[in-house]
Every structure is written in structure tokens, then in C-alpha cells.
What does this fold into?
Amino acid sequence: MKTLKIKDICDKGSSSLKQKDVENQNGKYPVFGASGLIGKIDTYHQNKEYIAIVKDGSGIGRVSFMPAFSSVIGTLQYILPKKGYNIKYISYCLQSLDLANYKQGAAIPHIYFRDYGEYEVNVEENPDDQQRIVTYLDAEFAKIEALKANAEKQLQAAKDLSQAALKELLTPKDGWVEKKLGELCSIRGEYGLNESATDYNGVRYLRITDITDDGELNSDKVSAKNDSNKNQESLEVGDILFARTGATVGKTLIYRKEFGKCVFAGYLIRYRTNPNIILPQYLFYYTHSTKYYEWVKNNQAAAAQPNISAQKYNGLVIYFPQNMAEQQQIANKLDAISAKVKALQTNYTETITLCNDLKQALLKKVFE
It folds into this structure.
């Protein structure tokens, strides 16, 4: 092996394409962004396979191997190997590094080739040795991807089961009634605080980004709030928060005691059910049904930033059994299914983490 700088084994290229240049196009050639394929246009920048590195924003430093006859937008950078270097070999070499260490800027982090191009790497110069390593890593990575695919398949099967159960258990039956959300709640569409989050004595300040699409907190490290929480009553067990704006408008969270003392931000609105009419857990599950998702799609305001007002939410029609014992029975069944899905979600997340760690271990073994 020989120690060389990244700039000695590959060159950079840039793209002037913007995401808006790709939107509403219906071409033949794919264009990729940091999160993957974003559209197709009538032309391409690269007629051979190439490497792309995210140089701005989310996912900075991520290395991807890209197909021929495609392009990337300007937040990514083209990397092309110099003569004598196998492109897959160079791709694996760059994947073994943590290029995010070279990031600059806080609001929108970015990396420059002029900086990480100076990084020294160990590389084989013999083309046969490069191909031998590529063949080895291709085979090992294929095994790892099979493990990930199996875990993902199990998780998707569980999610499909959950949706089937929601459809079966929440489909209106004889004796059920329908009422609007505003008629079922003692607190109807209370807006959150329009202030920034700062650390303060353990009070959690919940934002839309702290809630997953499945209605869970995405981290134990939820931002806290300063003492302006005195302007808002803390959440109580069973309170349901609805996202009223943004790309994930409509997602919900039911507050549980283990979350600790919480207040919530302005892009969320609160509902508190009348427990003598409808159980909060039943309502929460209703907001994960296909019928609810269809309502969200049909009722969000057509704007650059999708949104649903509290007034609109108040008109959401809920179908439910009047018998509280029947509501509890439905909630209990869905709790059991939800617990199984969460267990598989945890297994899937751990599998992905372990697989990614194994990939990095293999890469370090080869290149260090």
C-alpha cells in the first residue's frame, strides 16, 4: 500500500442544478439529492459511474456510488477517480473516512474538497489488487444488505398487520356514533407557544420534530424551555397533540406520564378528550387510521407550507362505539399490536446500526 492524499487519487466536479430545476420534469435521466432520487430530466451530467459526496446540509460527508447517465443537485459534489484507480475502490476508500470532520459553518454546515482533499489515505496502486479488494467488499456488503433487508421485511410486515388491525377494529359497526372532534373534547385546538426552546430546569418543550410519524418521541433528549412555560398549562396524561403545519401535518402524539413535565410549541395544537365520551387512547389510534390520513390529505390548506387550522381540526368526524368497555377493548388490542411493532422497530434499528458498524469495521480493516 501507498500513502497518498485524496486529491492525488481523484478529482472533484460541481453541479449547478437546483431542486427546483428538477421539480415537475418528466425526463429519462435521474437526478439525485442528499436523500436519494428526486426526479428525472432530459439531460445528464455524467455518462459514466461516479461518486457523489453530500457537501451541504443534512447528511454532510455521506459518500454514494452513483450510476452512469445521471446527475446530482448542487448540494452534492462529483468525485471522479484519476487514471489507474478503480472507481468502486475509490468509493470504498472514501466511505471508510468520516468526512464530516471537515465541516464548517453552523446554520448550514458544508465541506470543501480543498480541505478533505489533503487527507492522507492508504491505497493499493496495482489495478489487480484494487479489484481483488472490490470483489471482497462487494461480497461482504451483499451479505450485510441481506441482513438489513430481512429486518426491514419483518418490520414492514408488522406495520402492515397494524394497519389491517386499525382498519378492522375502527370500521364503524352497528350502534356506533359519529361526532366531530371539537364536540368530544374539553380543550379544543389550543395553540402552542411561539418562542424558541432553551434549556431550563428539566421542562420539555415539544416540537413537531420531536415527534415521529408513528406518534412517539424520537429522542430522550427533547429540548427544554425557559420559564415562559408559566404561560401554558403543562400537558396532562391523555392530552393529544396534532401537528398543524409542515411536511408532516396531521401526525399526533398522546402524552404519557413517563415523558415528564412538558409544554409544547406553536406548530402543535392540543386536544383533551372528555373521558366520559371517548377514551384518549381510542382517539389517538383513530388518528393513525387510513380514514384519518385521507381526511388530512383532503383538508390541508393548499399552500407552500401545508397546514390545518384548529377550526378545521374541530370538524374532524370520529366514528366510535358509545360503550366505553368496547372502546377500551379496542384500545387494548391495538396496544398489544403496537408493542410488537415497537419491538420489531427496535430490532430493526439495532440491526441497521450493527450492520453499518460492521461495514465500517470491514472498510477500516482494508484501508487502515
About this structure: The mean pLDDT is 90. Residues 127-170 form the longest helix (44 residues).
